[in-house]
């Protein structure tokens, strides 16, 4: 199994609802390092997993939709706790849509899966892994 | 599949028995960066994998039992080579006990597995992965 | 010249005023890795720059005052752009007050200076350096 | 499942053929951080996955064969795009040959698999995973 | 003293002349992580050291002039050993020209100095520091 | 001013004397990442600060003298608290001796200074800087 990973980052404000979150129930924020991993069993005709230029561009596009925003005010996230693990799924699902729409190139239709990891600090990170 | 990882560190002395260890047969020591990853298929009612505050607290508790110690003198490790990979298993098993005892919260009973990675330097690390 | 550095982190929301900030004029947030460096010409009687336990505790105390907050609503920062470089100065000045008040131990009165670095992402960071 | 990883690095020149590579079709180069992970279900009689000294030595040997070279002129790679993901497979396959030849010790014959990750920058990396 | 640092990267081929370089006399290559630090004594009217957006754009522009190239064939470097430390100076001097030309904004004319660090691997890096 | 830095690591056991050290008064250990920085105002005839091969070899030699040892039993450190900051000075002084003895090459006699940084974990490090 082969994989390729590209990294972006995302700076947002948000708050959480639920006692489990303690002081993070207040409006605060985070920088997320966003790592998107694309997997497949065999390389394509160019000997690659995915066009790394397109992968970087599409990941940047997904991230840009939320960058420099207060997630509490985003309609997509109404009534949702935008935890690191949940946001990893959001990024992975958006990337999957772009793969299926052909935005990562025709060769990318051979991708088997995507994993997205969001690092919220040097001591905590979360991942979501899905098939394509 | 979702996961959340938290990082702690551990500073210990120890020695190894067996020619394969070369100069590491002498009493020496290590700083281990300890990454504990908790996995589950679905998020809980708070939209998280595990309470990251409790996960951090319990990992710190597991690490504290061995921190600033000479492992050669710990009864738990009598006659055992406390290799990085072995210590990864020790930390994972101790965390599993705490999950089963409810120390990571009721929601954590839905966890599917734990992986622990110990970095012994910038050029070597080891992991142990288990189900819950 | 000797120095010792300890790392903490800080998660806040804020916004900027001024066209130079572009999309960062919107309410967003950041995780800052906060590195505090303490400098002196000679080691103290214990052969150290500063008690690393106290340094860590006091840095954590300084950071806790702003952690999980919206800096736009903090009276300390009314009418101020809380840029990364400005926040580095805030942390350094708060630490200097604590050094002068004896919170880092009597030996710490021999410190010559403090540098604080805040990393806002893997590709951008800022520092402030001052004498004591 | 246990694993041990060791890190080396490799500095090479090469070029790519195919429009997908854009400016990387020109002769350029890369530093690859090369992480080799060895996996097995149970530890051996010394309580380890593999002799980390031998693992480091053999990874260095594999890397040395290509280090400080122009891959475009290496007979092994004639007509091949030496992408990061492809090179990860090359390193993994060379390590597998050495495991099978006994170069990583008799105990290493119990290894279940190898994963090799090549980091081409702080924002892009690729992996190849195989059984032994 | 305040500073702000931004990071880019650069992938090039080159070779060295001189026995001191050993195997690096062959055509090979490197990924350089390029950190550009801008320093000044006081913040500007926006409470910043430099417009981080412009700093990032101009550093990217400086790097782009050499990216994906064989430095042995660049007229700028004819007869020159393009060592990591030398390239750090090249990047710093190009940035200084851009500061003086106003490309980093009018406020950037108040900058006191620039330091550029190039990381050639996880175990080696070089810097050049200059006044403005 | 130019500089070049190379990284090694060191794994030792030791203990501290003095209440300030708390639990670190017990026999424990550490992995130190050891960064040695060599500085000079002008590059030498080969366009470098120092032969990076020799710098790496000599740093490794300095580190090897203490690697895999219990510093409490080293005659060099009898009655001394081997704090991270103190060990940074030890490494810097040993390197300075080697520079003066010509072990880093004739060109290295032009070096102006050395800084050594020891990282004891991902959240704490110490440095010592000296002239040559």
UniProtKB/TrEMBL annotation, chains A, B, C, D, E, F:
Signal peptide: none
SUPFAM superfamilies in UniProt: Tetrahydrobiopterin biosynthesis enzymes-like (SSF55620)
Top-rank taxon, per record: Bacteria
Pfam family, one: PTPS
Metal-binding recorded as keyword: yes
Metabolic or biological pathway, per its Swiss-Prot or TrEMBL entry: Purine metabolism; 7-cyano-7-deazaguanine biosynthesis
Names of required cofactors: Zn(2+)
Molecular function terms, GO-annotated: 6-carboxytetrahydropterin synthase activity
The protein's Enzyme Commission number: 4.1.2.50
Enzyme class: lyase
UniProt similarity note: Belongs to the PTPS family. QueD subfamily.
Record's protein name: 6-carboxy-5,6,7,8-tetrahydropterin synthase
Organism, scientific name: Streptomyces lavendulocolor
Taxon lineage: Bacteria, Bacillati, Actinomycetota, Actinomycetes, Kitasatosporales
């Amino acid at each position: 199994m082969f994989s390729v990973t590209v990294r972006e980052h995302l700076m947002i404000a948000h708050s959480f609802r639920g006692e489990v979150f303690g002081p993070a129930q207040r409006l605060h924020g985070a920088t997320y390092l966003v790592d998107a991993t694309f997997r497949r069993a065999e390389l394509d005709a160019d000997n690659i997993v995915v066009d790394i230029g397109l992968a970087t561009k599409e990941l940047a596009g997904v991230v840009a939709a939320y960058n420099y925003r207060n997630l509490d005010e985003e309609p997509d996230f109404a009534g949702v706790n935008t935890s690191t693990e949940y946001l990893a799924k959001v990024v992975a699902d958006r990337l999957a849509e772009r793969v299926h729409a052909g935005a990562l190139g025709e060769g990318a239709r051979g991708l088997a899966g995507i994993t997205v990891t969001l690092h919220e600090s040097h001591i905590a990170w979360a991942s979501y892994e899905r098939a394509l």
